[in-house]
Amino acid sequence: MPTLTPTPSASHSVPTTVKGACPHDCPDTCALLTTVHNGVAIKVAGNPDHPATGGVLCTKVARYAERTHHPERLLHPLKRVGPKGSGQFVPVSWAEALADIAAKLQAVAATDPRAVLPYSYAGTMGLVQGESIAARFFHRLGASLLDRTICASAGGEALVHTLGGKVGMRVEQFAHSQVIVIWGSNAIGSNLHFWRHVQAAKRNGATLVCIDPRRTETAEKCQHHLPLLPGTDAALALALMHEFTVHGWLDDDYIARFTTGWADLHGQNGTQRSLRERCLLWPPERAAAVCGIAPQAIRDLARIMGETARKNQPVAIRLNYGMQRTRGGGNAVRAVACLPALLGAWRHPAGGLLMSSSGQFPVQRHTLQRPDLLSQGLGGRAPRTINMSSVGDALLAQPGDPVLQGGPPIAAVVVYNSNPVAVAPESAKVVQGFARPDLFTVVLEHFQTDTADYADYVLPATTQLEHWDIHTSYGHTDVLLNQPAIAPVGQSKPNTQVFRELAALMGFAEPWFADSDEALCRQAFGPEIDFNQLLAHGFAPLPEAHAPLAPFAQGGFPTPSGKCEFYSHRLADQGLDPLPNHVPNLEAADSNPTLARRYPLAMISPPARNFLNSTFVNVTSLRDIEAEPVLEMHGTDAAARGLAEGALVRVFNDRGSYHCALRISPRARPGVVNGLGIWWRKLGVRGTNVNEVTSQALTDLGRAPTFYDCLVQVEAAGD
Ligand SMILES: Nc1nc2c(c(=O)[nH]1)N[C@H]1C(S)=C(S)[C@@H](COP(=O)(O)OP(=O)(O)OC[C@H]3O[C@@H](n4cnc5c(=O)[nH]c(N)nc54)[C@H](O)[C@@H]3O)O[C@H]1N2
Ligand SMILES: Nc1nc2c(c(=O)[nH]1)N[C@H]1C(S)=C(S)[C@@H](COP(=O)(O)OP(=O)(O)OC[C@H]3O[C@@H](n4cnc5c(=O)[nH]c(N)nc54)[C@H](O)[C@@H]3O)O[C@H]1N2
Ligand SMILES: [Mo]
Q: What is the CATH number of domain 78-150+361-476+489-515?
């Protein structure tokens, strides 16, 4: 029996509950209730009052207290004493660490501040611990800007060029849809709270369709599954348009009033004149050959969508990120985003499309981030932007390399809210870059991650239970407030506080570095969001003006033309294809047959259900469920290679190789292997993970990574 520690006072012995928000990079942005006893978070639960959360959390975040009070939490600043990557550190005081960091950054900045690179992503989605004081600090310093493309920018740009922004259906409306097409999304694994609405719709008789190369838990539960080859979604979408056209399923009135480029353009030089003309080049047989599925499956899907729409019943698409991580990801999202307008599906609140709702939040980013400070820091130099998705190349670039845009090589990196050594593509180069002896690296972290192993200083950061923050969502339309539930664990500090102190040490005396975290939460939105309501309830729905029930029932797309832009003048002006098209993968049998002969398997690397990118990989109870890094392979591909279930395999291409266990599984289709992500390299097999084989090539739109455009070969691993 554990003995109970006597409590210092009666008031301490009563557990309290604190309202918060899940910080993770997930569309659901749940409202949390944290129970605190004697200063320790003993339970994290979903807030039952918040409709989008419904009192339910995923398995991962239900373990958030275990993660916060994890025995391996970083408790004090660390200074590296061994070689980079070896993980040898000694504790130092905050005063010593910050003084040395400030001096080093100042020395680099004295020559050219652009040699300093901040590297951050969505370890927390909070507007305050994400990009507030940190952004002000790096702007004031004149550091390189970071192009934050690693996740969603291909589809984001595609939506901007088609619908006008990251805007769409209200998520709860899916419960009333008659057809739901779940496209490039494993909702049960990565968007669990959306799945509740899908189940409600199914009970009401809705038809569910999943479009995904992998037979996911979601695909299994839909009546139809189209297991297309990775990167062929635009071909499928064009064939659906073909069928809508030839069968008379189009909503001609909606198209005429609220779209551009369907049939009314005058083209030149052999280009297709209109989307109508282009889609008529894509009969189901042609698309089926490209997608590696049966033509009848395409005809059936077109009929389900077309006939339902013509009966004035709502057809809805949940579009997600799977398809965006191939060369043609931007065009694929554009093609799919055209479908609801062609069917007039937007007329209905439960029809249309949802990819991301993040553009609907009126965030006062200028106030939070102060980009105006940049010119002061740059002192007349041109700003420079480094793409986070090719950080390997950026760190290895020599003077004169076009990646450096005429600026200096990167001399210092400050990483927060991200684990690039594990998550960025082409690990060999990322590791080599972070291992540069002349690179000065600071990592703000909860844990000693793969990236922290390459740091000169590791600084302990607070978790969501220990700091203030305020959140938007990309899957619903509520603002959430996170209040600290417990005191910082060990000597950890919020990201904001670290950058405040560095600012002071570097002589940035401007008052905006003194804003408290609570003040920053209050600055994030204007008076439209009632902060007192957030304090009292933890969440506040966006006003109807920002979250309309049927956003495009009467057109009103936030594009330059006010219409759904099948034809985009803005893309034409950039010299890009103004109409969506199928852009084949860089690495595929048709576009690179020589490569495909050597590496005949297409690999995708979607998330493992119990990890959140590389977060939670070190939480034992969750890692135990995932057990080990696995590659799913279809039986025929395994038999052709003489590979047995459970075998240790080497997955490789010209960029590198990684090791994992083989799982012969009907979840994989022939020709495609699924390397589930994203293990910490040091907790994987032989210090590797799936990003050893992924490439730094970028997408057609949005400069995003092409993680799922990746040919490999697989063989039994030697000793
Ligand atoms: N449990 C869990 N949840 C997560 C995450 C996590 O790591 N774990 N990550 C979070 C983050 S950061 C994000 S961005 C989202 C990502 O979640 P999603 O938007 O769902 O994106 P992915 O998981 O990348 O891919 C979704 C599905 O697309 C499929 N897919 C792969 N290539 C293609 C293709 O070319 N076409 C089509 N149609 N499908 C394809 C994959 O097999 C996968 O099942 O989830 C968030 N939620
Ligand atoms: N092969 C392959 N690679 C992928 C993907 C894929 O599907 N396949 N998915 C890509 C996608 S969609 C994304 S979004 C990226 C994700 O890449 P990242 O944004 O780097 O996400 P994580 O791996 O979760 O790492 C986040 C880190 O932030 C830390 N952190 C969390 N909160 C805080 C905080 O408040 N302060 C500080 N200082 N640190 C904090 C966590 O401990 C964690 O180590 O990975 C990409 N990489
Ligand atoms: Mo992501």
A: 3.40.50.740
